[in-house]
Each structure stands twice: as C-alpha cells, then as structure tokens.
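In this supplementary section we document a worked example of the pipeline. Step one takes a protein sequence of length 353 as its only input; no multiple sequence alignment statistics are reported here. Step two produces a three-dimensional model, which step three serialises into structure tokens for compact storage. The input and output of this example are shown verbatim.
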Amino acid sequence: MSLHKISGAQALADLAQFSAVIDARSESEYAHDRLPSAINWPSLHDDERVRVGTLYKQTSPFEARKLGAALVARNIASHIERECLDKPKHWQPLLYCWRGGQRSGALALVLGQIGFKVTLIEGGYKAFRGAMRADLPTQAERLHYRVVCGPTGSGKTRLLHALQDAGAQVLDLEGLASHRASVLGMIPGQPQPSQKQFEMRVWHALRGFDPARPVYVEAESKKVGNLTLPDALINAMRASACLHLQLPDDERVALLLEDYPFFVSDAEFFCQRLDTLVNLRGRELVSQWQEQARAGQMQAVVRALLATHYDPGYAQSTRRNFVQFDRALPVPLADRSAAALAQAAARILGAAA
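The serialised model returned by step three reads:
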C-alpha cells in the first residue's frame, strides 16, 4: 500500500504536483466550496448522509456505521470502475474530505491497495482552507496592480479581456464572482459562488501570476454582488496605479444594451432589478423607468440610469477609494468596437513596457 499524509499547508504548496485532486465529501459540500480543480467522488451522497445520520440518532451509532460502511464500499467501487480502470500506475491523486479523514481515508485505503501513490490531506478541507486564508494576503501583497477605472458602461470588462488577449495578466473579479458588480449586475441563470468558494478562486488566480509583471484588474467596491473582496486585495488595489477609460455616452448606452441582453429580452426581470433602487431613487422615479422598460424604451431607461444613478459622484467616489486616480493614465476610446479595445490594450502595454 502506498499512502502518504501531508498537512494543509504542504498540500497548498504542492497542489500542482498531483495527477488529480479528489474531494470525497458529498455533492452539497463540494458545491459550497472545494479545492481548485478538485473533482467530486462522494464516499457518501447527500441523501445517504441523511440516512446514516438519522439511523445514528434514532437507533445506534453501531447500526449507522454498518449502513455507512456498506454505502461507502458501494460508492468507492463505482468510482473505481468509472474513473480508475484506465489510470496508469504512476497516477498520483490527492484526497481530502471535511476534517476527520474517515471518508477520504476509506477511498485512500482502496486506491493504495491497488498500487496508486495516494496522498491524504491531514485535517481535510478545513486544514487546507485555513492554510489558504493565511496565504491569501501574501499572494495579494506580492503583486503590483494597474486598476482600470471608468464610469459604468465605459467598457472596463471588455478592456480587461482585450488586455488578456494581448498577453497581459488579468484578474477578472466579476468573472470569478459571477456578477457584474452593480446593483443591476446579477446574471440570470448564474448564481454566485459561496463566499468561501470565491475566496478560493481569488487565491488560486493570484498564486498563478508572475510578480515581475503587472496584474490588470477592474476598479471594484468592497463587494461584488453578495461577495466580499479579501481585505488585503482591496487595500492593494486602492493603493495602485490607475487607468481612466473614457467612452462617449451614446457608445456607453449601446455597450450596456449589448452586455445586458437579458434586460432587453426580459423586461419584467429588468423591472424586478430596478426595484432594488427604490430606496435610493424613490418609488416614483423607479416606476417611471419600469413603465418605459415595459414600453420597450430601453435606451431611454439606460441613459437615465447613467445620468441619474451611476454617473453622479462617480469621479468623487473613485478618487476617494483609489488614491492614484488623479494621476490615472487616460485611455480614450472612439467607440466600443473590438478593434478600438485591442488598440487601447496595445497602447497600455506599450506604455508599461
């Protein structure tokens, strides 16, 4: 049998060395948070955990353990038949469960008996998360950032993508958070990850960057939707050099209608999102915008939102939160086209060289 145990901190350092990272917890635990690139081989499925837990409480721990052992054995056999028959002997998986190691230990025992070189995280997911949280400030602070600022609809996310296409290092926080960051930024059909999973995604992205090169990131507030940025990251961003993206108002309106097509195709969803602005803008004005949206006057609504809700106080807020904004490099765009954004990305990278 080939079985090796490592700490959460060691797993964090060696993560890329393993052939696969296997999460032996249930589906719901895996969905809530997991290690980067982990695949889910539940030793007990969600419904099975309920059955075993109920038996434990209502009958006896001994009876529960018997049922649990039968279920775990059956599940492990299924995983091996499905995933392992084509694996070579040098395949080296890293395994973990929640904390105690029983679920991952059972899987590790069988894989080790087969002859695979198996590594188990002592303390499981909880130990790895503790090590990740301790390391996250280090990863955030070892990098230097260039923050893309600009009013709503100026193309900040599009510019990030253009920079990435041109070879720059880009931290797409809105992509990691599955949210467009504004009060209207929820994306239909794309629920946000848990706070824990968001932190894991941010940490994994940061650790992959070269500290000798800048990391481009969009100016964000402390929260992206319902998720909170790590303190070390937001503090580093707010102290960093800035770019000031500028796009004509007509182009901003057109860009927003392109980037939020679900608002155009589903006016009722848009009206529901507008309800979140009642406390800030009043029921009368929001109702007016909703009537226009239902009448198909979406350009007028978007233009009014920019003028009334988004733009007032933008420069003051950005200047307050990003101390180098007054010295930001201007990035004017003639239009929202891919060509204009690619040219802007080339100018930015040329100036940074």
